[in-house]
Amino acid sequence: MYYCLLALTAASLVNIFKDYPVSVPPSVWIQYQLIGAYDGQKITLECHSQAFPKSINYWSRENGDIIPHSAKYVPEIIGDNYKVHMKLTINYLAPEDYGIYKCISKNSLGDMEGSVNVYKIPHPNAAVPTKIKSVAHDKPADLTYSPSSDQNGKRNFKNLIPKASRQFIVADKRGKLPGNCSGIDTHHFRTIAFRSFIEIILLNVFVRNALM
């Protein structure tokens, strides 16, 4: 609006108010041009424009396809004949929803567009996989032994029992280890003892079958 000031006489001034419309080509301003979001999220894109005569305003994808109102996309325009605030709400983001969105303003003097890039980020509640390095505490005993023969030709089965099976530590009833084993994993030694016990049983069966 412009104001006209007239001097009717040397001693008095008269203010005359009148609207003088001025044509303004569209201009677009976007505060957030990069928006990170995750699958399933609801987001709202915003765009501001100014133009006169009154502009036509809408949203489109990067390829130029106009985005209509739907349950998925909800465009909204708030403003007057000069200033317009454009919004686009996207419900439940899907993989195909990431990319460039354009807000476009057009009038008889031209057109102007702005863009918003929606990119994917990890879900804040998603479990982060962690790599756990497995370290073996003991090596499996090798049961593939061949009996040796002494000087008289008799087979000796003593070497069939692995040394690892003959040497193990057993905790007492309260689960306490001997004094020289403090700080060592009790469960670890119980596991070794149980495995060694099973190995000895299997070896005894093997020896009996070999002698029969």
From TrEMBL:
Keyword hit for Heme: no
GO cellular component annotations of the record: neuron projection
Where is the Ig-like domain positioned along the sequence?
Answer: 26-119
Q: Which InterPro entries match?
A: Ig-like_dom (IPR007110), Ig-like_dom_sf (IPR036179), Ig-like_fold (IPR013783), Neural/epithelial_adhesion (IPR051170)
Q: Alphabetically list the UniProt keywords.
A: Disulfide bond, Immunoglobulin domain, Repeat, Signal
Query: Does the keyword section mention Signal?
Result: yes
| Signal peptide, first to last residue | 1-16
- By its UniProt entry, which SUPFAM superfamilies does this protein fall under? Immunoglobulin
**What's the name of the protein?**
Ig-like domain-containing protein
Species: Rhynchophorus ferrugineus (Red palm weevil)
